Amino acid sequence: MKGTSPLATESVSAAILEQISVWYEGQRQTRTGTVNTNVMTVGLILAEHMERGIPMEKDDYLAKSQVKGLGGPKVKAILGKHNEFRPFTREGGRTSRKTYDLAKGLAGVISHAAQSAGYNQLDTQAQERVRHQIQAWFVSRVQQDFFARKRIVAEIDPRKPVRVALTSLLEYARGQGGNLAGALCQHLVGAKLALRFPDLQIENHGYTTADVQTARAGDFTIGDTAVHVTTAPTEALLGKCHDNLQNGYRVLILTPDDRMMAARQLAANTGLADRVSVQAIEDYVGNNIEELAGMRSTAVQAGLRELVQTYNQRVKAVESDPAMLIQIPANL
User: Fold this and answer.
1) What's the number of domains the chain is made of?
2) Which positions ≥6 away from 283 have C-beta within 8 Å?
3) Is the pTM of this model over 0.70?
4) What pLDDT, in 10s, does the model give residues 40-69?
5) Is there a single domain that holds both residue 143 and residue 167?
């Protein structure tokens, strides 16, 4: 079809996007209502790969274990074409097995919908406009389901023990699923250490890189103590602790209160019960804020506000997901 009319182009785009929308909503988590960023990045890159032809062949968009061309820099460039320059996911889901499977599923949806809608009968410029509109739709999903996501919200009452506020924050994060609870714990500990040791440069790493710890003794190293922050103590963690001890470190494991006994049992099982300290994150952070405040209510209020502000500053420095930020309540 030469000289395709704008009306025909819009009709094809609408038909394809109708099916893409069904697929996209099918990826939304029922309990939290959230959509993984991998779903969004796959949509952005497959709109590019549509240029190779419809139906989409696996060799056009898949390599051995990853989606061709997918990565943080490419996603950033695509968003920039649509005038969206806010920081998004750094990795872009390039090596995720889930991303690989998502791409196969979406490619099938696009291929079927595009063929049925008459995409191949459009002229070259019209096909380009369709791809642009599909990509713009995924950019709008990034804006709505990523940038517009609510921050962590919880009751923070300075009249109650600080650990109560921390427990409330942790419960909210756990309810959102994914890695949010782990990230919250890591950055809360980092914020507490920054307040407790203002003259030290406290390490600040993105949560997804913290699990690797290839060249670090722990999530944080203070003096000769390796600090490990975890929401799920494992034997592998205790193995890391054993290595710390062999290398002359003292060891501190911080975990939520309801996981503390499990961590202590693992330490006992591996012969490290009297060599590592296991503490509840809620108490470790909470008691310190109380002490820095001189155990006075008015100062506790200021201390909580400073803790949350410091937490948010550290998160903004290394994380791209705004949902990791804590909403500062009016009573602080």
Assistant:
1) 2
2) 163, 257
3) no
4) 999 999 999 999 999 999 999 998 778 998
5) no
